[in-house]
């Protein structure tokens, strides 16, 4: 069941017109070659018809349906080929003319994914939206689909999609709406492990596919932490809006990274060593918390502009600072409350967020809401000049705003209430099966006021809708902590450097570099940019020594006691030039330092609610 303002009329006309389900037969036996074969039988009536390939993908907030990956499209009926023509303007639409007497249209095509994006040699993520077309003009709730999936020999599967039968590596799923199908991906692979995350109530499961059997081993404390997280989320929201929940985890260095929310599952694609490597495990815990919180904040409660009735109508991202920002905040709170993170891990994460947002030069020209409205271009926008562009800040700055709101509620209610009370009112209520309850900016204000009367409209307008020269750092100071910089590396910065093989010098000379010395980004307000360095250049030596990560760290560290500028020899295309960076601050990384004049409210935020 979905609650939508639009699409009601479509729902009734469509059901009476085409009550029959379409069938989708997917052959994934070539998954390891990044090729998946799709065959559809679509109920139709004679006359002009437009088929649509899913374009606006829920959770991606953008027209990211990989239309370039659809190849080999053929239409036929009763064995006779039917011609098609792509729309001249809308590249995702295919027009055809159904001959008299035809009631079923056969459609075949192949889905070719980019290598290392959805599959490795040993596992794959099956995303149904990549594997189908539907009759344009019908709501995705009104279309019924009977899907089947043929697996590579000996491979296993996991999905929230209900299974009707299984025979000889072929799965037949129960008939569901197109909405539910697209919301229920399948992970498949040759190495599989399934672990229960709850002993009573609805089923919660950790399903893992990995490139090797060794990668499937996880520490007992990780499992205990994930089980606690299921309890903590229930204690936080007070109700669930799913029948069961599955974390669909793929562990591979070649299967692509992923984090995509669904009502009753999440796709969590991480590296092969995510359970064993210390930094990757911390990152994994946050991914689990983030995608799980989305079942409530994003899938159940969804901004009205993102609650579209099909996959062809554009989405509006203006409230993504709630959809992603609040989720980003809860994605840090939940691992800390569950013991997957220590209190120090939580503080390091908030310090990194606060420092990064405060040092975004792009915040001088665009309000936070503009990064959300711009979502269809902000994800694919280049990394070069990211600090000046201000890319998807609705995530991290959103998390600071919600921490700020949390502390305000706690302070004004003398510790009796918190953002948990907002979440219970907004996302809780009765336990239900998956449904969508859209909301507006006013609904947010009203619920905040029900929890704690305050001028929330001005509070949010100042932080979201106006250009704000500074990040909302009151979120840190009101919590009893101070943002400070020391020469000790920050844990979150280390996690990011490990993941992208980078050297983050954002808070010293103002550069983000690849491990080979390539400049990924510069901060236009800091020393490296002022000396003339820009993204796209490559550092080949520092203070007369050949580039290495050790050499650059050493040069930054010794700048504190030197009066001479740091000398960078830089390659720009086929030319070399020397840049003198006038910097003397040593290594600088953000941390939180306790302010003993104030109560430690940040510590209260991450206290377990379930234990
Ligand atoms: Zn998210």
**Overall average residue pLDDT:** 95
Question: What composes the largest sheet?
Answer: 9 strands, mixed
- The structure class reads alpha+beta
Distinct small-molecule ligands in the complex = zinc ion
Helix content: 25-40%
Give the N-terminus to C-terminus distance in angstroms: 33 Å
Number of E-type strands: 32
What fraction of the residues are assigned to beta strands by DSSP? 25-35%
Low-confidence stretches: 1-17
* Distinct helical segment count: 19
From the spread of the alpha carbons, the general shape counts as globular
Cα radius of gyration in angstroms: 26 Å
What does this structure look like?
This protein is of the alpha+beta class and 611 residues long. The chain is built from 19 helices and 32 strands. Strands 1, 2, 4, 5, 8, 11, 13, 14 and 15 form a nine-stranded mixed β-sheet that branches. A five-stranded mixed β-sheet has the order 17-18-19-21-20, with helices on one face. A four-stranded antiparallel β-sheet has the order 6-7-3-10, with no helix packed on it. Strand 26 (511-514) and strand 27 (519-522) form a beta hairpin. Helix 4 (278-293) crosses helix 16 (491-500). Bound molecules: zinc ion (ZN). The site of zinc ion (ZN) has 5 residues, from loops.
């Amino acid at each position: 069941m979905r609650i939508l303002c639009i699409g009601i009329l479509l729902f009734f006309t469509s059901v009476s017109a085409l009550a029959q389900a379409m069938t989708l037969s997917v052959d994934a036996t070539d998954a390891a070659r990044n090729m998946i074969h799709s065959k559809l039988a679509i109920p139709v009536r004679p006359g002009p018809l437009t088929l649509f390939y899913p374009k606006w993908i829920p959770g991606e907030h953008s027209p990211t349906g990989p239309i370039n990956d659809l190849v080999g499209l053929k239409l036929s009926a009763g064995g006779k080929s039917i011609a098609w023509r792509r729309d001249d303007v809308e590249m995702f639409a295919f027009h055809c003319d159904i001959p008299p007497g035809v009631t079923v249209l056969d459609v075949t095509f192949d889905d070719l994914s980019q290598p290392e994006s959805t599959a490795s040699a040993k596992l794959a993520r099956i995303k149904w939206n990549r594997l189908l077309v539907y009759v344009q003009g019908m709501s995705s709730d009104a279309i019924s689909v009977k899907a089947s999936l043929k697996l590579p020999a000996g491979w296993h599967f996991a999905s929230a999609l209900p299974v009707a039968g299984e025979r000889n590596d072929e799965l037949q799923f129960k008939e569901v709406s197109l909405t539910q199908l697209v919301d229920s991906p399948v992970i498949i692979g040759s190495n599989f492990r399934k672990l229960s995350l709850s002993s009573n109530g609805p089923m919660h499961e950790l399903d893992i596919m990995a490139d090797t059997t060794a990668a499937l081993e996880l520490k007992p404390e990780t499992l205990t932490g994930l089980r606690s997280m299921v309890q903590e989320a229930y204690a936080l929201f007070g109700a669930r809006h799913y029948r069961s929940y599955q974390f669909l985890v793929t562990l591979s260095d070649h299967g692509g990274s992923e984090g995509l929310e669904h009502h009753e599952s999440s796709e969590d694609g991480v590296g092969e060593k995510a359970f064993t490597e210390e930094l990757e495990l911390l990152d994994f815990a946050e991914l689990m918390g983030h995608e799980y919180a989305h079942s409530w904040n994003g899938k159940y409660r969804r901004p009205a502009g993102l609650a579209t009735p099909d996959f062809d109508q554009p989405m509006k991202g203006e409230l993504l600072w709630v959809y992603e920002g609040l989720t980003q905040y809860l994605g840090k709170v939940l691992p800390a409350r569950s013991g997957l993170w220590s209190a120090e891990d939580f503080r390091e994460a908030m310090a990194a967020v606060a420092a990064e947002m405060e040092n975004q030069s792009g915040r001088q020209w665009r309000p936070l809401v503009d990064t959300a409205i711009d979502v269809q271009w902000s994800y694919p926008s280049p990394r070069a000049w990211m600090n000046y562009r201000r890319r998807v800040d609705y995530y991290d700055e959103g998390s600071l705003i919600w921490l700020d709101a949390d502390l305000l509620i706690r302070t004004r209610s003398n510790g009796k209430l918190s953002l948990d009370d907002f979440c219970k009112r907004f996302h809780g209520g009765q336990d239900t099966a998956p449904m969508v309850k859209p909301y507006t900016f006013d609904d947010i204000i009203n619920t905040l006021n029900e929890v704690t009367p305050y001028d929330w409209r001005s509070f949010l307008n100042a932080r979201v809708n106006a250009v704000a020269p500074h990040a909302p750092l009151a979120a840190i100071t009101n919590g009893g902590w101070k943002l400070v910089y020391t020469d000790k590396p920050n844990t979150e910065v280390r996690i990011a450097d490990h993941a992208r093989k980078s050297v983050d010098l954002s808070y010293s000379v103002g550069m983000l570099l690849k491990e080979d010395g390539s400049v990924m980004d510069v901060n236009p307000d800091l020393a490296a940019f002022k000396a003339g360095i820009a993204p796209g250049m490559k550092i080949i030596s520092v203070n007369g020594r050949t580039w290495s990560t050790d050499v650059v760290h050493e040069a930054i560290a010794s700048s504190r006691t030197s009066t001479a500028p740091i000398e960078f020899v830089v390659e720009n295309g086929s030319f070399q030039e020397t840049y003198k960076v006038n910097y003397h601050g040593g290594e600088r990384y953000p941390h939180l330092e306790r302010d003993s004049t104030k109560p430690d409210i940040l510590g209260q935020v991450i206290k377990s609610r379930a234990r």
